[in-house]
Amino acid sequence: MATRAKALRLVAVLITCVLTASCGLFGSSSNSGNAAVERNVLRIGVLPVVDVAPLRIALNEKLFEKAGLQVNLVTQPSEAEAIKQLDTTLDITWATHVSLFRAVAEGTELQLQGEAYQAGPNSMALVTNASSDYDDPGKKQAPTIAVNSETDIGALTTRAVLDTAAVEKQKIKFRAMPFAEMENALKSAQVDAAFMIEPFITKAQRSIGAKILTDTARGPTLDFPMSGYASSKKFAEANPKTLKAFREVLREAQQRAQSNKLAVQDSLTSYADVDQQTAALVSIGTFPLSLNPIRLQRVADMMDTEDVLSGRLDVQQLLPPGTTN
Question: Quick check: helix, strand or coil at residue 222?
C-alpha cells in the first residue's frame, strides 16, 4: 500500500509539472504572437470613405487583435496630409493610388502595403444639381468641375471620361474643395458638376436631389484601381513582420467585405456620417485581396499619359519584397 501511495504521489507531482509547463507554454505561445512582430501597435491614417470599411470590419471582429496587433485608425483632413504624417504620427495611411504615386514621383519613399478599393458602377461619378440642365457629358465644352484635388483621381478620371465625350481636356476648369463642400457648390451654381465618391454621391442625392451626369469608371477607367495603403520605406524595412501580419489581416478583412456588402454598408454609419437609410443605398465597388502590380501599373501609366507624372513609374519597385501578385 505504501508503495502504491508513493506511486500515486509521484503521478500527482508529474501531473502538476505537466500542467505548470502547459501554462508556461500557453503563456509563451500568447507572447510569441506578439514577439513575432517588431511592434504591436499600428497607427493608420484614414478618411471617411467606403474604401476603408474593411478596416472597421477587422476591428469589430477583432481580426487584428487575434494577430497580435493593436490598430488605431486616425482620421485625417486629407490624403496629402496623411502621407506627410508617415513616420511621425502615422505608420500606415490610406490614400488614392494617384496621391501615393504622385508622392513617390516627388521624392517620398513609400512601400505599398495593400490595395483598398477598385471602382464599381457609380462608386465614383460626376454629379450635378437637381435643377441643372447639364444632362450629357458632352453638352458643355468648358465645364467647371469640383474635385478634391486637381492632381488626384478625380481630375485624372474626369479628363479621361470627358475626353471620350469630345470635350477638350484643356478647356475643363477644375475647382479644388473638400468632398463635404461640394453639395453647396452645386446648389449655388459655383460649379457645373462635382467629382464625388461614395458615400458623398448618395448623401448628395438624398439631401439635394443630385443627379449622376456620368459614371467616371467607364471606358478607359472601367474597374479603375482607386486606393490603397502605404507605409514609408523606412518603416517597412524596420518592421517587415509587422507589415506582413497587417497584410494578412487586411486580406481577410477585404474578403469579408467583398462577400458581405451589407456589413460594409452597416459599418458606414459608424464613421462616415450617414444614416442607415443612406448607407443602404451606397454603391459598393470591389475590395481587392492582394497587391497586383499589373493592375496598379495601369494607374501609373494613365498618370504618365495625362502628364500627372513626369515619367513612367515602375509600380513593382514599390511592392514589398517577394510580392508578385
Answer: coil
